[in-house]
Amino acid sequence: MAAGSRVARYEVILAVLGLVVATAAMVYLAINALVNHESCYGVTSAHIECLPLDQAAGARVVVVLGYLAPLYLGAALAMRWQTRADEPTARNTAFGAMVTCMVLLLSLVVSAIGGSGFFLLPSALLMTAAAILGVIVWARGLRFNMASVTAPFARRGATHDAAAKASPAKPTAGAKTPTLAAPSPSKPQQPTPQQRKPQQPTRRSTRRARR
Question: What pLDDT was estimated at residue 20?
Answer without folding.
Answer: 95
